[in-house]
Amino acid sequence: MMKVEAKQMYCVFHVDVNSAYLSWEAVYRLQQGDSVDLRAISSVVGGNEADRHGIVLAKSIPAKKYGIHTGETLHSARQKCPGLMVVPPRYGLYMQCSEAMVAIMSQYAPLIQRYSIDEAFLHYQFPPGMTPGPEAEAAAVKAATRLKAQIRQELGFTVNVGIGPNKLLAKMASELRKPDQVHTLFLHEMPEKMWPLPVQELFFVGRATARKLRGYNIFTIGQLAATDPKLIHCWLKKPGLLIWQYANGLDHSRVTDEPVPVKSIGNSSTLAFDVTDRATAHQILLSLCETTAMRLRKIRRCAQVVSVTLRSDKLITCHHQRRLEVPTDVTSLIWQEACRLFDDIWQKEPLRHMGMHLSDLCSNDYYQLSLFHQHLEKHHQLDKTIDALRSRFGTRAVFRGCFSHSPIQPLMGGVLQDQEVEYPMMASYL
DNA sequence: TCTGGGGTCCTAGGACCC
DNA sequence: TCTGGGGTCCTAGGACCC
User: Fold this and answer.
1) Burial class of A302 by CB neighbour count within 10 A (0 to 12, 13 to 18, 19+)
2) CA–C1' distance A235–C2 (Å)?
3) For C17, which residue's CA is nearest its C1'?
4) Which residues of A are known to be catalytic?
5) In chain A, which residues from 148 to 187 place their CB closer than 7 Å to nucleic acid strand C?
């Protein structure tokens, strides 16, 4: 009997906004009547240096030519490029831009998977009657080119669209050459387009893995693809097998719009000043717990593990966690545990950064039934009331008294601090 | 290199149980 | 306590992504 190989009647698009934060900022400023296009000059979106958040979040292409990298300090970036323009981020605006882009994408296919604020996958079905091959690939390129043009026309920013038989190759394709490009990376194109690239360009090969691979004389993606997977597994364990598959273009994950269940949540912050006393540290933990616990309740979950992270002025990081006897979503109980963890590990060294995380999340249904814990009832009522007030009047509407004459913000952490600001909708600036 | 903040997954090693 | 081996749970830390 003849075995018929099932032909794949779709391909995947990966849409990636070019220099996302910087492009969005540039378009917004042009719309506000600014005469300078940030994309055309050496510029970066960067954090606040006074608060010690001074790193590059996004860079323009001219800035990139000076060797400026995302994540590097603004201090260092300015040394490379003395006239560098630095603008602060507006996360609320970026969320809106992201939403608007996904709305356009959904005109092209019913199935879109958001991957991050500036990246999304699209499941592209080949036109009816078309079999996989050059004709279908050309149709995909045509659709992707239209999508790219529509985003540029209606929203004012450019994207790269990568096209491949799966998510991995679509993503690799979108990275090929920027900006404002459509690239394909089908299996037959791998030897030419992907295998010659340096191994660290492969998704999931970071600095540490690339260094190890170079130690084994593997410098390109093609060399990794050609290596015996047993050897790679021996060297790099499970992640090694994954990158070996990626190097060979193998990826069986599906484009899906089902929300990924949250496994853990947390907040951390580099502090504007070094903390040297226990009371201040505890207050910062409370501030971090407030935001984290609020988010936990919003997704209707309870946490079973609480953890605290400290980073000293010498940039040494330590971490401590503990399992709770009873899962909880109560701010004050989480805070109590965080303070105990802090007291266990703090050696009195000045602290530059503090964080708290909640993991091993479980359903909060159990809580609904467990009101036999009478003493918890008032905590629940308090949290519930505060959540409702903040949701109605804004997150700054209610805060604990201990913050009223304190330099510490009552709700710390979270990058979306200006998410309640409404920005005017994008329109074409062309 | 004066180093942000949100996550995920994996591994090593210790404690404890049978 | 000169001690085998398998399994589970837990914590700490590292690597990766955006």
Assistant:
1) buried
2) 36
3) A204
4) 119
5) 171
Instruction: Provide mean pLDDT across the span A393-405.
Output: 72
For A43-55, how does the pLDDT look when each residue is reduced to its tens digit (9 = 90+)? Answer: 999 999 998 999 9
CB A60 within 8 A of CB A39: yes
Is residue A227's pLDDT more than 50?
yes
Written as six digits, the tokens of A90 are 């507006």
For residues A198 and A150, give the distance between their C-alpha atoms in angstroms, rounded to a whole number: 33
Residue type, A147: L
C-alpha A332, offset from chain centre: 29
* Secondary structure E strands in A282-316: 301-312
What does the block give as tokens for A383?
Answer: 């949290």
Q: What is the DSSP letter of A129?
A: T
Q: What is the pLDDT of residue A386?
A: 78
pLDDT of A149 over the 60 cut? yes
Q: Are A76 and A91 in contact (CB under 8 A)?
A: no
Which nucleotides on strand C sit less than 7 A from a protein beta carbon?
10-18
C-alpha gyration radius of chain A: 25
Query: Do A355 and A268 touch, CB atoms closer than 8 A?
Result: yes
Q: How far is the CA of A146 from the C1' of C15 (A)?
A: 38
CA separation, residue A213 to residues A166, A191, A194, A217 (Å):
25, 20, 17, 6
Cβ–Cβ under 8 Å, residues A25 and A39: no
